[in-house]
Specification:
Layout lengths: L2 E7 L6 H14 L3 E5 L10 H9 L5 E4 L13 H12 L7 E5 H4 L2 H12 L8 E8 L7 H10 L5 E7 L4 H11 L5 E6 L4 H6 L7 E4 L14 H7 L10 E7 L7 H11 L4 E7 L4 H13 L5 E6 L4 H10 L3 E2 L1 H6 L4 E4 L6 E4 L1 H14 L10 E5 L3 H12 L3 E5 L3 H11 L3 E2 L2 E2 L1 E4 L12 E4 L26 E4 L8 H8 L3 E3 L1 H17 L5 H6 L1
Parallel strand pairs: 1-2, 1-8, 2-3, 3-4, 4-5, 5-6, 6-7, 9-10, 9-11, 12-14, 15-16, 15-20, 16-19, 20-21, 21-22
Antiparallel strand pairs: 11-13, 13-14, 17-18
The structure holds NADP nicotinamide-adenine-dinucleotide phosphate.
The site of NADP nicotinamide-adenine-dinucleotide phosphate has 27 residues, from α15 and α18.
């Protein structure tokens, strides 16, 4: 089982007591170890008492670490200075359980001798284990494998640790290769947003431990999850060699609620599966290269992904190029948000659960079956991906759709691709509306498919529907789901509309994805309440 070490930085002696409190919190959250990062403390002349207290009073087994500036820390002394502080800590009467020693320190003969002499002076049962480490903030270390060979062949090295900043998701796969080739306890992880996969799924490949931070702290390395995220959300201690991997692909993707929602469902359904954010650069080339490597990886066990902006159209192209299948909605819309990978044949299928989730949410509010919206006029505001999905879904179910968009030509193009095509209820009717047509009083439903009202979006305080439009008794659906009560939702609620929020649609599209992957549609209520 992979251990969870919570990194706690202690810069000054007066910060020892709060640091010990944080270690207690880490223990309560489920950490197995605390890593005392004493980069700055180690540079003070009178720090030995503080370091001794950290080791003696720690509520968790300890790793003592002095990270040098050249490897991403704050210690700017020489190797021999670092070695003397570590040696004093080893000899202090309450030695740490592990001492992190940079490989470069061990290459300095004098520094190495100081550390080894301190270790040799202790009884074997008292002696800390050495974690020999190598960090590269710029990217994959050039001499990665030769450094590892040296660590693995050094009898004094109990745990080999390599960490580097991931440039793409593919770096994580090399970290897994390191773990798969290990010749002793090994930590291989990638830093940065692109490296979270290695921090969690390293457990599948036998990582000795992974580092985490406390909820309210920045952490000692970019991309570090919190202890609670590792223990509760990702259930890291139950990850096995067989754990299936799912994730959300997008750029940016760190804000996605997908990992919270899907991991909670996997847990409820008793599935040995985990779901992670999988950031992939915005171009087709980076999407294609990264996704191909993940899909084809022989051991990772990628079983499906959610796909969000800007890759929904790329997913359709990816699956078509590989001879996979598209569901009706993806084919008609030209964009998909779900990749299903057959666990046996590895065949690919792209599906669009946005369209089905949107139409189900709308139909429920209307009291209608989701495949029969005949007789209804629906105004769709926007002409992007979600507008296209909703226009197709509504028109396919027989509604008369009017597309209204800031850039009129895009609305014209959208209507032209759908109008007159055969749908389940006869030829689809999709026309273009001018801005003024929103006031005609002739719509049964309005659907906001723009980012207006979205937190951190282009117009977070604005509603796409002008105040003078009568909303009494009509359905107003917002696809924006952060925040839940958007300006449009507030405006529509106060003016007598029946309101459908974006979070309902979000949860439905996610539940439909879960069903496609696992065969079981989870309850959206349990997640809404959590
Ligand atoms: P998209 O492809 O980028 O399209 C955005 C559309 O909104 C375009 O038609 C654009 O007009 C218009 N627009 C953008 N900023 C605007 C502004 N300030 N004023 C007026 N119109 C504006 O985006 P998308 O993928 O369709 O996503 C749209 C929204 O759907 C997102 O913001 C997201 O919150 C929501 N969404 C919800 C779910 C869910 O499950 N609930 C799922 C996916 C997306 P132009 O053509 O003039 O550029």
């Amino acid at each position: 089982m992979t251990l969870v070490a919570c990194s706690v930085t202690v810069d000054r002696p007066d910060l020892v007591s709060p640091a010990l409190d944080r270690a207690l919190n880490a223990k309560a959250d489920g950490a197995d170890l605390v890593e005392w990062r004493i980069d700055l403390l180690a540079m003070l002349p009178d720090a030995s008492g503080a370091i001794q207290r950290l080791l003696r009073d720690s509520p968790l087994p300890t790793i003592l670490t002095i990270r040098s500036e050249s490897e991403g820390g704050a210690f700017d002394g020489s190797p021999i200075e670092a070695a003397r502080v570590l040696a004093a800590a080893i000899a202090c009467g309450a030695p740490p359980h592990f001492v992190d020693v940079e490989a470069s320190l061990l290459r300095d003969r004098r520094a190495s001798d100081v550390v080894h002499a301190a270790l040799a002076a202790l009884e074997e049962s008292q002696r800390p284990s050495l974690v020999v480490s190598l960090h590269d903030l710029a990217g994959r270390p050039k001499a990665l494998w030769s450094e590892l060979e040296r660590m693995w062949s050094d009898p004094a090295c109990h745990v080999a640790k390599v960490a580097w900043t991931a440039r793409t998701l593919r770096d994580n796969l090399e970290a897994f290769e390191v773990l798969g080739s290990r010749q002793g306890p090994t930590i291989a992880l990638c830093m940065g947003e692109q490296g979270v996969l290695s921090r969690v799924m390293g457990a599948k490949f036998g990582a000795f431990l992974t580092f985490a931070r406390l909820d309210d702290e920045e952490g000692t390395a970019p991309g570090q999850p919190t202890v609670r995220e590792l223990v509760d959300r990702y259930r890291i201690k139950a990850i096995t060699h067989h754990t299936r991997v799912y994730g959300v692909v997008g750029w940016p993707v760190s804000h996605s609620r997908g990992p919270i929602v899907h991991n909670a469902w996997f847990d409820q359904l008793g599935l040995d599966a985990r779901y992670l954010a999988l950031p992939m650069g915005p171009t087709w080339e980076s999407f294609k290269a990264s996704l191909a490597e993940l899909v084809e990886h022989p051991v990772l066990g990628l079983a499906g992904v959610s796909v969000t902006l800007p890759h929904k159209e790329h997913l359709v192209r990816f699956v078509q190029e590989r001879g996979g299948a598209l569901d009706d909605a993806s084919l008609a819309i030209g964009a998909a948000n779900t990749l299903v990978i057959d666990p046996v044949s590895r065949a690919l299928r792209a599906c669009n659960t946005d369209a089905l989730a949107g139409i189900e949410s709308l139909a429920e509010a209307l009291g209608r079956a989701s495949d029969d919206l005949r007789g209804l006029r629906v105004a769709i505001l926007g002409a992007g991906g979600v507008a296209r999905a909703m226009a197709w879904a509504c028109a396919n179910a027989g509604a008369h759709v009017v597309v209204i968009n800031r850039t009129h030509e895009r609305a014209v193009a959208l209507a032209a691709t759908l109008d007159g095509r055969s749908g389940e209820r006869g030829p689809m009717r999709v026309e273009v509306g001018e801005g003024a047509s929103i006031r005609c009083g002739c719509f049964h439903a309005f659907i906001n498919a723009t980012p207006m009202g979205m937190q951190d979006g282009p117009a977070p305080d604005e509603s796409p529907i002008p105040d003078e439009v009568a909303l009494d008794g009509v359905i107003v659906m917002d696809t924006v789901y952060v925040p839940e009560r958007t300006p449009l939702v507030q405006q529509a609620t106060s003016r007598g509309a029946r309101v459908v929020t974006g979070s309902g649609m979000f949860l439905r599209q996610a539940a439909l994805q879960c069903e496609l992957w696992t065969g079981t549609r989870p309850s959206t209520i349990s997640v809404q309440e959590s």
